[in-house]
Amino acid sequence: MPLAIVVGPQLGTVALGAALALIGLFVIGRMLRHDLVDAAVASTYQVARGQRTAQNPTPLDEKLQEINAGSTTAGKAFVAIALVTKHLAAEAAYVVGTVLLVIGALVFTAGMNWW
Fold it and tell me: What is the DSSP letter of 2?
């Protein structure tokens, strides 16, 4: 008896949906470190809680230190452009991750309803 008859097509659909959703969550999680909006929110939260010290800089402070580490104005501009480019790529990847998450949830639900 073939395995497809015993297990059914639903298990494959459920597994595919779960895999797509997990890939979407992974992409979202990996891209948040480059998102400037997330850094601004985390910095605001850190300052509001009184946790900002010289030894514990906020995420925006860290990005500003990264920019100021350039030795020349052109070097600083290059680092700033790289940060903005990473931010834009992170925003695009966040959209892709969200779409994968939604599609995965829909496929998972379709597989569960067929079961």
Answer: -
